[in-house]
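Quiz preparation item.
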């Protein structure tokens, strides 16, 4: 099973990012620790030197499975469901920029909090329609670039909290290049049974985030990663298992704790 870890390419307040800061040093470190890939968290790709980052990932022989986009919400408040149409337009444009950026790495684009939080005055149906329209437009930019919607726990958003609501949404959207991203941190809060939800989504998830119950590295909380990895193998998941974890007690110890725990279970 291929293991990756999330690295932030730009300053971010989001805490579950093991590596922030110097990209060159962090990419070299991730390679040195034995990872097979690196997931990039990007606020705005137009502010990055793509060739520079591409050289770093290629020279370190680290494929990029996915581009995280949530910082555009976290830092700038962009979202597909903001009541202000101008902000919604900017969120769609940002996603299109992320799609062009992701294509250069053959990576998928994650839609986490960029979907937004439906405001109290907005009916669920109205928010869902905004989301459907936005994602349809983004999915049509390039059918060869995959988009993965992440069910996120209720404390962060009120839109698509569970795997089954994610599956219903995909059904309504009807776009082959749009699937799900499953994240064990959110699943631990929302799913009745993590392994059963992996089976439910087996033909529809493109990417997989791991963090333990406390969002520390796997092995530092109470989730059963032996059983989770076993289920991923059973459903023939061939993508990356990507650590979206807090840099605790520090970045390297988190990254080492993750890889050691998961590799010991894969033997
Ligand atoms: C992003 O992948 C994620 O899991 C969310 O918690 C972001 O807020
Ligand atoms: Mn996640």
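Solution:
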């Amino acid at each position: 099973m291929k293991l990756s870890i999330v690295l932030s390419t730009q300053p971010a307040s989001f805490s579950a990012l093991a590596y922030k800061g110097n990209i060159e040093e962090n990419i070299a470190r991730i390679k040195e620790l034995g990872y097979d890939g690196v997931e990039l968290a990007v606020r705005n790709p137009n502010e990055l030197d793509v060739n520079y980052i591409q050289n770093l990932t290629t020279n370190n022989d680290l494929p990029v499975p996915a581009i995280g986009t949530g910082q555009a919400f976290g830092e700038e408040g962009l979202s597909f469901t903001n009541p202000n149409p101008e902000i919604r337009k900017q969120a769609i444009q940002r996603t299109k920029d992320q799609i062009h950026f992701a294509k250069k790495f053959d990576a998928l684009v994650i839609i986490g909090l960029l979907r937004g939080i439906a405001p109290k005055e907005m009916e669920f149906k109205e928010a869902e329609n905004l989301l459907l329209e936005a994602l349809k437009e983004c999915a049509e930019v390039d059918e060869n670039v995959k988009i993965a919607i992440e069910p996120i726990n209720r404390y962060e958003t009120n839109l698509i909290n569970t795997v089954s609501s994610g599956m219903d949404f995909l059904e309504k959207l009807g776009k082959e290049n749009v699937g799900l991203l499953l994240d064990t941190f959110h699943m631990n809060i929302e799913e009745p049974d993590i392994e059963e939800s992996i089976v439910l989504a087996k033909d529809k998830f493109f990417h997989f985030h791991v963090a333990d119950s406390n969002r520390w590295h796997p092995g530092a909380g109470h989730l059963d990663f032996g059983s989770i990895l076993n289920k991923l193998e059973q459903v023939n998941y061939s993508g990356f298992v990507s650590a979206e974890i807090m840099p605790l007690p520090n970045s390297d110890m988190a990254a080492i704790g993750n890889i050691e725990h998961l590799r010991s279970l894969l033997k």
